[in-house]
């Protein structure tokens, strides 16, 4: 490791204490220090040849203070205790300016101190420590397997790996040292047809909070996914274009997670619902005056926000405001019952304790309210399997894998495509369909949720790069869900719609 990096687990003696002591003496009501080191790697191969190999380390110290009803923030890439202590005066100066600019007093919802906390997301092999040669060799093997199959013309394969080390310390006495590890491997194949026709298909494996062992089969069956993909892609290329109309959909978690993210995850961020976060990706139709009353969906719709799920990308022990990771209800039996909160928004709206949704994507950025793992609960007891859900459909479509999405600024009118669409005829799969997109409004779609699958169908999907804020920040987030049956959904033929 280069000497210019700061290790949040091995900080210079007394650094946090000196900063917090200075903040206390300056009269801060709250001060939180984050020392972070984030190592991000990307390796990508195209047709077996290395195209990208990036290895980036960002480290720094960030300080947020609450002083006389105003928030101030300052950060540095310097590593010494002197530079860290200087952050207090800088942050106080920002707080004074912010106070004049906003003209309103900020309060933070109370949180009991948690003392010394050490937490590491569960993993066996730190993915950023796996040598580049080993990564290229594994991705090269995956490429060759798919590229050698009949009818496959191109293969792109990549893996992103992040190890995020963070030491959080606040005036109340919480000191949390946390390491989060995550990987996102993906492979996409292209098959060319006649007359310029082509199709693509991507692996369905989601990004996860696991180590390199994920690529070796821990948590995902890569052998079977890579073996099946060429045949499925060939079939897709020769399959008929969908006839637009209304269909019953059985949606696999590999597709449904993204619909949850866009239509529920973002819509239940309270800053968005209050209109504070309008510029980037919009506000929300699910406004607080409808809390406890809005029929978001059918009685089968039960959604939680969750910072505790094993292998979840938004899972933490302590968030970036010193709040403990929790699980909380957002939608119960179809009704909106909660929001995702940080401490300022919880206090401003009288919602009580924050449910732990503050996150900053770097020591150099201020924490903002970011998404928890927002997840749809499976059926209680055993619940149906995906095959059983399909058996209940006379004329429908089974959907796997996410692809493109679009949703309006109130998180209400949406359209999603996918990786694989199979016709369902009289309870059985009857070959693939091309050019399928499903379109609905949020409440109409979730209101047509007829049944959710059992726990055996449950999977955490997710993304590394959910965007929010100005200046923009990215956050990793997972969404767990079972397979689901949604009735009578409008299906578009995407090709006809685009006039091709
Ligand atoms: Zn997002």
Tell me what you see in this structure.
By secondary structure, the protein is of the alpha+beta class. It has ten helices and 22 strands. The chain has two domains: 15-237, PmbA/TldD superfamily (PmbA/TldD fold, 2-Layer Sandwich); 245-497, no CATH class. Helix 1 runs parallel beside helix 2 (81-102) and helix 3 crosses helix 4. It is globular and about 70 Å long. The protein starts with 14 loop residues before the first helix and ends with a helix. Residues 261, 266, 466 line the site of zinc ion.
Rg from C-alpha positions?
Answer: 24 Å
User: How confident is the prediction overall: mean pLDDT?
Assistant: 95
* Number of DSSP strand runs: 22
Report the sheet-strand fraction: 35-45%
Low-confidence stretches: none
Number of helices: 10
Bound molecules: zinc ion
Q: Which helices and strands occur, and which strands form pairs?
A:
Layout: H1 15-25, E1 30-46, E2 49-67, E3 70-76, H2 81-102, E4 116-120, H3 132-147, E5 154-170, E6 175-192, E7 198-202, H4 222-237, E8 245-251, H5 253-265, H6 270-273, E9 303-306, E10 327-332, E11 335-336, H7 343-348, E12 358-359, E13 368-369, E14 373-376, H8 386-391, E15 395-407, E16 413-425, E17 428-433, E18 436-441, H9 442-447, E19 449-452, E20 459-468, E21 473-481, E22 484-493, H10 494-497
Parallel strand pairs: 4-6, 8-15
Antiparallel strand pairs: 1-2, 1-5, 2-3, 5-6, 6-7, 8-22, 9-10, 9-14, 10-11, 12-13, 15-16, 16-17, 16-18, 18-22, 19-22, 20-21
Bound molecules: zinc ion.
Zinc ion binds at residues 261, 266, 466.
């Amino acid at each position: 490791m280069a000497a210019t990096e700061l290790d949040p687990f091995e900080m210079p003696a007394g650094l946090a204490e000196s900063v917090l002591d200075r903040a206390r003496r300056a009269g801060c009501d709250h001060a939180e220090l984050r020392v972070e080191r984030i190592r991000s790697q990307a390796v990508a191969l195209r047709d077996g040849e290395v195209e990208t190999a990036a290895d980036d380390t960002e480290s720094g110290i960030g300080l947020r203070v609450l002083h006389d009803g105003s928030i101030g923030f300052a950060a540095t890439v310097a590593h010494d205790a002197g530079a860290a202590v200087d952050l207090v005066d800088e942050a106080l100066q920002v707080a004074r300016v912010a106070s004049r600019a906003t003209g309103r007093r900020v309060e933070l919802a109370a949180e009991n101190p948690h003392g010394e906390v050490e937490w590491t997301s569960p993993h066996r092999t730190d993915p950023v420590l796996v040598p580049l040669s080993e990564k290229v060799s594994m991705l090269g093997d995956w490429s060759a397997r798919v590229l050698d199959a009949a009818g496959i013309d191109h293969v792109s394969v990549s893996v992103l790996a992040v190890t995020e080390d963070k030491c959080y310390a606040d005036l109340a006495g919480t000191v949390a040292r946390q390491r989060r590890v995550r990987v996102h491997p993906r492979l996409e194949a292209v098959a060319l047809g006649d007359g310029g026709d082509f199709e693509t298909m991507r692996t369905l494996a989601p990004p996860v909070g696991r180590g390199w062992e994920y690529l070796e089969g821990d948590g995902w069956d890569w052998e079977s996914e890579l073996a099946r993909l060429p045949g499925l892609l060939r079939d897709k290329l020769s399959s008929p274009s969908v006839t637009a109309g209304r269909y019953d959909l059985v949606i696999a978690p590999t597709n449904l997670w993204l619909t949850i993210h866009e239509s529920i995850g973002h819509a239940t961020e309270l800053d968005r619902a209050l209109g504070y976060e309008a510029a980037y990706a919009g506000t929300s139709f699910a406004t607080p005056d409808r809390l406890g009353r809005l029929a978001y969906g059918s009685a089968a719709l039960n959604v939680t926000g969750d910072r505790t799920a094993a292998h979840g990308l938004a899972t933490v022990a302590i968030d970036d405001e010193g709040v403990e990771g929790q699980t909380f209800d957002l939608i119960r039996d179809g009704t909106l019952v909660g929001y995702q909160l940080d401490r300022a928004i919880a206090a401003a709206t009288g919602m009580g304790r924050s449910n732990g949704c503050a996150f900053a994507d770097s020591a150099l950025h201020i924490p903002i309210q970011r998404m928890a793992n927002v997840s749809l609960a499976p059926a209680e007891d055993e619940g149906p399997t995906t095959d059983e859900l399909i058996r209940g459909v006379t004329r429908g479509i089974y959907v796997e894998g996410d692809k493109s999405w679009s949703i309006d600024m109130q998180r209400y009118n949406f359209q999603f495509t996918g990786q694989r669409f199979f016709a369902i005829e009289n309870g059985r799969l009857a070959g693939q369909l091309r050019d399928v997109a499903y379109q609905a409004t949020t409440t109409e779609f979730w209101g047509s949720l007829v049944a959710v699958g059992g726990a055996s169908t449950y999977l955490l999907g997710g993304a590394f790069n959910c965007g929010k804020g100005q200046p923009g920040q990215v956050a990793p987030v997972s969404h767990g869900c079972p397979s689901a049956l949604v009735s009578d959904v409008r299906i578009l033929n995407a090709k006809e719609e685009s006039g091709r």
